[in-house]
Amino acid sequence: MTDTTAPAAKSGVRISGAFHRLLAFSGLIALVVVFSIASPNFMQTQNVLAILQATSVNGVLAIAATLVIITGGIDLSVGTLMTFCAVITGVVLTNLGMPLPLGILASILAGTFCGLISGTIIAKLKVPPFIATLGMMLILKGLSLVISGTKPIYFNDTPGFNQIALGSAVGSIFPSLPVPNGVLILFLVAAIAAFVLSRTALGRYTFALGSNEEAVRLSGVNVDRWKIAVYATAGGICGVAGLLIASRLNSAQPALGQGYELDAIAAVVIGGTSLSGGRGTVVGTLIGALIISVLANGLRILSVAQEWQTVVTGSIIILAVYADILRRRTL
Amino acid sequence: MTDTTAPAAKSGVRISGAFHRLLAFSGLIALVVVFSIASPNFMQTQNVLAILQATSVNGVLAIAATLVIITGGIDLSVGTLMTFCAVITGVVLTNLGMPLPLGILASILAGTFCGLISGTIIAKLKVPPFIATLGMMLILKGLSLVISGTKPIYFNDTPGFNQIALGSAVGSIFPSLPVPNGVLILFLVAAIAAFVLSRTALGRYTFALGSNEEAVRLSGVNVDRWKIAVYATAGGICGVAGLLIASRLNSAQPALGQGYELDAIAAVVIGGTSLSGGRGTVVGTLIGALIISVLANGLRILSVAQEWQTVVTGSIIILAVYADILRRRTL
Amino acid sequence: QENYNIALISKGFQHQFWQAVKAGADKAAADLGVTVTFEGPESETQVDRQMDMLAAALSRNPDAIGFAALDSQAATPLLQQAKDAGIPIIAFDSGVDSDIPLTTATTDNVAAAALAADKMAELIGGEGKVAVVAHDQTSRTGIDRVDGFVNRMKEAYPKIEVVSVQYGGGDQLQSTEITKSILLANPDLKGIFGANEGSAIGVANGKTELGSKIVVIGFDSGAAQKGMITSGVMNGAITQNPVGIGYETVAAAVKALKGETLPPIIDTGFYYYDAATMADPAIAAVLYD
Amino acid sequence: MVDIDKAFPGVRALSRARFELRAGEVHALMGENGAGKSTLMKILSGVYTRDAGQVRLNGQPVEITSPRQAQDMGIGIIHQELALMRDLTAAQNIFIGREPRRAFLLDEGALNRDTQAIFDSMNLKLEPTVKVETLTIAKQQMVEIAKALSYQSRVLIMDEPTAALNDAEIAELFTIINRLKAEGVGIVYISHKMDEIKRISDRVTIMRDGEYVGTVPAADTPIETIISMMVGRTLTNDALVIPDTSAAPVALEVRNLNRGREIRDVSFSVRKGEILGLAGLMGAGRTEVARAIFGADPRESGEIWVNGNRVGISSPQDAVRAGIGYLSEDRKQFGLATGLDVRNNIALASLERFIGPGGVINDSAMHETAEKFIRQLSIKTPSDTQEARLLSGGNQQKVVIAKWLLRDCDILIFDEPTRGIDVGAKAEIYKLLNALAEQGRAIIVISSELPEILRLSHRIAVMCEGRLTGVLPGGSSQEEIMRLATLRPSAVAETNSERKSA
Ligand SMILES: Nc1ncnc2c1ncn2[C@@H]1O[C@H](COP(=O)(O)OP(=O)(O)OP(=O)(O)O)[C@@H](O)[C@H]1O
Ligand SMILES: Nc1ncnc2c1ncn2[C@@H]1O[C@H](COP(=O)(O)OP(=O)(O)OP(=O)(O)O)[C@@H](O)[C@H]1O
Ligand SMILES: [Mg+2]
Ligand SMILES: [Mg+2]
């Protein structure tokens, strides 16, 4: 290449990068516009907050899944791991009567530990991620029931607990903007995950592993260690999701969680992360998760019959991704 | 390769090929042996038939998923497509009162048609298989409810219908061996699928696509057409599963099906087919599906508490695959 | 006394309702000196998985089977097989379209939901908009409770309009989101009926999260629901007697095994309870945690 | 092909490029890495569509929009980057899309027979039923060639077909090319091996920076002229200087390395400042030895000593920690993280250098370092944030080299370091290797090109069938190396053709 083309190319890449993100975003905007026109109730502050709140759990799980998927893996256990962490918190806070901070720590540690185990099974025993996390999903589902005695554990003795998701630190400062803490936590997790992905060694290796694991290994990198670290981090994030859902329901529901992995992975893929690894963004995942909850909320607000909601959701997911592909192609 | 190494390598490959299949099989055998020792009821003819019967639907779905997964794709819609086909059969036979063969044809055609649509969305619109089939899964789930009016459709007016899965053509010849037709159909579908994979152009391109799609395209092959053909074939096989389940329940249950894709994919992966495409066998998938149902049945026969069943199932799935990896490595 | 082995195949497992049925069955097992196993599929849509469970149970050669059918017809061949093997069958929770079960221990869900409609109408003053958040669009209990509630409203309370019926799979979180959507879409809504435990808790959660004042009628009990009724978030709820269902099913099975005759239906009843009546011994006996 | 333009996002690959091919000629297409050779040929073979210009076949303008169409017009291509389906057999690869059938069914017997016939005509010893993923790149390349031949095209494009081949196989290929030429097939031949151009081609077209430079007859144009047309300047050729390293300490010593039949009792040592050439025929086990030393593959027995200390190496990580770097022979599979950008590929082996407090990566330092190497190795890329897979083959190789240069290892093993690299860059790399040796590093160079081995090595170790058959002083003759490379203790009967071409 000659010198003249180089700078043009550079800015070209930058613009298209930013524009690309804007595109998934514009799919979301299109949905919001359509629903706003269709129903005056849609754009009410309260409904917007409801949508954000509804995104929080799936969004956090999807961020966990994003990390794993960028390495070229998959994590089917995010949903039941979330539940397991919630149950552990329940045991620590309610059954053992420990103070709140310990409960929070327990959830995140439990998540990290389980992620560590999945990661170890995958990295050391070379069990394919699909199988390892499928197994984990079932194991954790069973263990949640066993530990909780197949009964919900309530947090009635820990008064501050439901403030984790439902309180509003923002609202106490700006009363007109009662953004629930759950939403704040989602954005916080997203910001941290985006930072980790783009600016730290862990993030760099996450992408490198998904790009060409063998090349990374032959560069003298301890591939196993980093892979385990990614799964453990994802597990820790599921621990946060566990806190969010437990706080929202003011209880640890041991039977819940299975099926949540599909929504999480869907958000990731709608957000432009490739299942074959090596590429993906947290922002995309957030947008993907928002698309899912805006769709669900909007269709309910419009009182579309439930069976048709499903049909429309399926169609719009395909259309949204197709629109993204089309516009990227004509760029 | 020199002359001396060539024959050795060749026979090596052959032996390890056969042995490898034997390995997944030996995992299954190990399970069977353990359960037989643990409970005298396990190896009764009736129970063996129950296990096979329980494998039939998941097995057929898993065979459909195998085809798609070998191309490097994924099909999340197998479960709800099965249901959709069952509902279509219900409409044709019960609501429209058409004769049985038409109902059978309708199910398979409906499946093929839906597979064709998924395949087209994937091949022509370049929507990732995960998204396209996720969308399809939701669309079909909704449509099944819409078409059936959210009520099961019974086949009471079509007396022969439940013979498709429950009758026993074998049993009418050898009364001591009342193998249900559903099981026969599973093996028939498996045999046909194995034949298609190994002996026809469709099979060749299925493997080629999963191996290196770009290379296939560069070789001047109409990649889109073959990809669509694979999804359509898989859809047709889901149609067979739809017949099986409808016949077994003597009704089309419109709400059933979601979640079944995970069991199907699990059977495929346990059977040694790689999610990244290019390799896989129908025999492996059958063994994978059998492992899943033997586990479920065996644990029930032993009256293991349900929450522990889940834990044990998860662990054994990981262990079975790990054992397979270990033995292949030490070969 | 013989140590009978009785296999119960229910419609679910993890849900508190089914756990209460299990508790009742376990209590009967202890009282009567028999062994009971209890299992059920993941969700109430998985008719074929329930068949597999029933088949596996048959392979164990139990002395009797208790069966809560997800579909009234699908199990007929297997039940016939059990009958041929001389295994008595007791239906519970929902009936089966066949004369094979010796008796059915159940609640009239349609009537129970109609009672919920009556209570709702009373609490909102006989007019206005209401909605239903149910657990399942296709399962027997889902259909019966929605129909029971909606039809009663139509017949008896012409000024009440059921504006929305949505399904959250009995998942508390999903039911919460649904409730919020319904409330935001219908600011003038007067009340919501939550048609099972998860749905009812979801409705109450949604009400709390939005700070709404609507009337909430729930279904089933459980610690959370009882707490919500005590605190006033939920106005009241219908409860069946799941412990009773479990107990009666096992008791009937033992009677059958001993050759005693059984009535065709064992109605285990349903009750409306609210903060005021919760402590009544009759009510407290059928509530569970 | 006239006035062909092609731009990729951020890159102008071709600008008014031109090319002409006559029937029955071998026309070499030359140019530096990234000059646009592959792109031009991909346009001709229907992989890319051109932005402007015209393609004429037999004087008629044609539109070639798909590989299929190109095939139908009789244009066949061997791609530079292997395009094989790894899970299929050689025969299945060759006849993909044109499988012989009997009724609806595939006729595997005919497939394998036809393939065997092609292999026989190429004098290639290969089972049609072997899966290509088990083959070395060289064999895979031969399968690609067989595939291209099977189309019986009138125009055959060969994009660096010999990059992975040894001399015997190259000779075989040239026999095939001459046969095709006699049959009137026009052949486009792309290669960075200058000696081949003289041996095989009739005319040479030279490209630079996506533009047409000129076309000259091969026979009476001196190589130096062609090179200067390619790089726009004349290159000086440094002669081999062998430093006296006999007093330098031993940096790496390998003792009795063993693994199965691939590595049999290999022992050797390299001193600081020394370049050891590792020569041998394809499949001699050189790559296996290198990978075993580097810990990429397990070894059964054998010791590795670095700077006089025995080191336990069981993974590449151990090796890198001990100061060993390994540039693999298959960059796509083992060298490059193709989805990552150039910058991160360069930093991949030394990421810890750019990690600041809290695990945060210092991207600006990484950028500067990457820019330095891009300049030093003249890597053609729009920026250091370009995805590595979008670079031309040769430039990808340079990125991998930069990765190991940055890592700053004391012992460097280069497995086919100049595969697919143009003359200009090759000279740069030779200079670089010499400079590294001068700095006191121990270097092992594995190369299938004897001239390269002879030009670089201070000492030459030769392998055959997993054994080290001898160590020669630098500047030995090709004949001497070949004698050791074919010294087979197992006395396996060898085909005559292989002997002769060797
Ligand atoms: N798909 C693509 N996207 C972006 N840039 C590309 C793409 N393909 C090629 N290029 C760029 O186009 C230019 C020409 O590449 P090409 O592969 O034709 O070079 P080449 O002459 O074959 O080089 P080499 O000898 O290294 O193979 C290079 O700068 C390369 O980076
Ligand atoms: N993937 C493989 N599967 C089976 N045998 C292999 C494979 N790769 C190499 N071999 C065999 O291992 C031995 C050593 O091969 P290796 O690639 O190390 O040789 P090399 O000297 O590096 O050759 P090259 O010039 O191809 O790099 C040979 O007998 C070869 O046939
Ligand atoms: Mg090239
Ligand atoms: Mg080699």
Word description of this protein:
The complex is a heterotetramer, with 2 copies of chain A (331 residues), 1 copy of chain C (289 residues) and 1 copy of chain D (502 residues). With 331 residues, chain A is mainly alpha-helical. Chain A contains 13 helices and 2 strands; from the N terminus they run H-H-H-H-H-E-H-H-H-H-H-E-H-H-H. A two-stranded antiparallel sheet of chain A has the order 1-2. The longest helix of chain A is centred in the N-terminal third of the chain and has 34 residues, at 5-38. By secondary structure, chain C is an alpha/beta fold. In chain C, 45% of the residues lie in helices and 21% in strands. Chain C has 10 helices and 12 strands. The longest helix of chain C has 17 residues, at 16-32. In chain C, 64% of the residues are buried. Chain D has 502 residues and is an alpha/beta fold. Chain D has a 6-stranded mixed beta sheet with strand order 6-9-10-3-11-12, with helices on both faces. Bound molecules: adenosine-5'-triphosphate (2 copies) and magnesium ion (MG) (2 copies).
Q: What is this entry, summarized?
A:
The complex is a heterotetramer, with two copies of chain A (331 residues), one copy of chain C (289 residues) and one copy of chain D (502 residues). By secondary structure, chain C is of the alpha/beta class.
List the helices and strands and how they pair.
The complex is a heterotetramer, with two copies of chain A (331 residues), one copy of chain C (289 residues) and one copy of chain D (502 residues).
Chain A: H1 5-38, H2 45-70, H3 78-95, H4 100-123, H5 129-148, E1 153-154, H6 163-166, H7 169-173, H8 181-199, H9 201-217, H10 223-249, E2 251-252, H11 260-270, H12 282-301, H13 306-329
Antiparallel strand pairs in A: 1-2
Helix pairs in contact in A: 1-12, 1-13, 2-8, 2-9, 2-10, 2-11, 2-12, 3-4, 3-5, 3-10, 4-5, 4-10, 8-9, 9-10, 11-12, 12-13
Chain C: E1 5-9, H1 16-32, E2 35-39, H2 47-59, E3 64-67, H3 76-84, E4 89-93, E5 103-106, H4 109-124, E6 128-134, H5 140-156, E7 160-167, H6 172-185, E8 189-194, H7 197-210, E9 215-219, H8 223-231, E10 236-240, H9 242-257, E11 265-267, E12 270-274, H10 281-286
Parallel strand pairs in C: 1-2, 1-3, 3-4, 4-5, 5-11, 6-7, 6-8, 8-9, 9-10
Antiparallel strand pairs in C: 10-12
Helix pairs in contact in C: 1-9, 4-5, 6-7
Chain D: E1 2-8, E2 11-17, E3 26-31, H1 37-44, E4 52-57, E5 60-62, H2 67-72, E6 75-78, H3 90-94, E7 101-102, E8 105-106, H4 108-121, H5 137-150, E9 155-159, H6 167-182, E10 186-190, H7 194-200, E11 203-208, E12 211-217, H8 223-231, E13 250-259, E14 263-271, E15 275-280, H9 286-294, E16 301-306, E17 309-311, H10 316-321, E18 324-327, H11 331-335, H12 342-347, H13 363-376, H14 393-407, E19 411-415, H15 423-438, E20 442-446, H16 450-456, E21 459-464, E22 467-473, H17 478-485, H18 496-501
Parallel strand pairs in D: 3-10, 3-11, 6-9, 9-10, 15-20, 15-21, 18-19, 19-20
Antiparallel strand pairs in D: 1-2, 1-4, 4-5, 7-8, 11-12, 13-14, 13-16, 16-17, 21-22
The structure holds adenosine-5'-triphosphate (2 copies) and magnesium ion (MG) (2 copies).
